[in-house]
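Appendix B. One record, verbatim.
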Amino acid sequence: MLQDNEIERENVKVKFEEALEKASFGIFHYFLILISGVLMVSLFYELMSVNFSLPVAECDLNITSKSQYGLVSGSWFAGVILTSHMWGLLSDLYGRRRILTVTPIVAFLTSVLSSFSINFWMLAIFRFFNGICVASAGAVVFAYLGEFLTIRHRSRSIMIASTIFSLLSVLLPLIAFLVINQTWKFELPIINFIYKPWRLFVLICGIPNLICGIAVYFLPESPKFVFSKGDIKQTIEILTKVYKINTRKSDFNITHIEPDDDYQQTSNKSGLFRMMLQNTSQILKNYSLSFWLISIIQFGTFYVGHGMLLFFPDILHEVSQFDGNENLQLCDIVKSVIEHKNHQLANATTRVCVDQLDNSAYIYVMILQACYTFGFIIISLSVNFIGRLSIFIFLFFTTGVCGTLIFYMKNAMFATYLYLWMLVSGVASNLMNTVTYDSFPTHLRSMAISTTMLFGRLGGLAGGNVASFLLEDNCNWTFSVGGLLLIICGALIFFIPVINKRNVN
């Protein structure tokens, strides 16, 4: 009788979320969260590799204006923007794991090639292809991680992965200092080429992609994706593997999962372009309010947190050269440096090449990343209790006000602190991805994340290029525009339907 009851219990049908809960939360998820954090930081490393390198590579790459900074950075964002939608669709059709295995390795190869650039156009081309590859991680990693997690672990786990991202980001200024400020040179006289420390730094920043591509190869496909294809058997096999790793037991007793709204939603692969239009149409028709609000907010967040970040090391280096002039505004210093460079070019005088960044540039970027780390830790601990809305309100309004106040600061160093806190608004981007996750079903989720992130990258592209022109012609508007955008994002956050949803453990 007992044996019959046991057989009956083992053959009971459960819902997917219950099966995921049965697989438990443990070692497998910790490793997955770690790899997801490294995947996130790989995008940041690739972006910042250029931000740190350009000030000391101006002579090597024949850079003569701030607008060329924007072109190099913009090419990377262009690669991301043009392919984010495609990567989201491909992962929704063919799986998350395939994308996250191949593209990071190719991204590493483009970083190697970038390190051998001989002018800024060549660097821009290689960064464009690098952007195409890393766009896949930005589009897929949140869906891949989230689909291994139950609703009560999802937001917190994504924010823990974001904390890992920020902890590793703190190391980047230290790596930059240890590598870029070296004085060695490796000459190749046959091709008249000199390999300098900044080139090695660009290559090093691609290594996280290589590590992630290899690591994901050994991980299973997303069980939620496999289930949405209609393959219940493989779904159970994946969950059994996860359960065995987490518990070190082999008694996973679920034999069937009940179909739900996501079941067999990604089984149709008839025509890539047709599916792209069909899925996009569903998003715009059924989830238009959430989609447009999230997209606009991501645009504003990336405009400041990524686009304006491009000039942070360079501006800090310039401020350090005017140490002691407390009455100068931040924009007075920027304008003075630009005029000095233009005077050198106009009079054909010998150009002074910068081979090393001032130490303060590394220190303040490290402080910025420490703020990111602290922010992610606080959000991870509090998001389930105080809710995402309260966090967004605090972030957007405080950072936005800081941006608008920079214009009024008579002390350049104090204005730098406001600039630093303004950039902390980038913390909101990853938390916003948890909102996107909750707003869309499985068969549209990856595309929704990738498309809203596309608008974010577009904001980064706009921020980098608009700031590059405003810094030269109307510096104060550079920060005022960014601050106003963040305040607008803070106002729009109230209208997202799922913003008050809490995943309380």
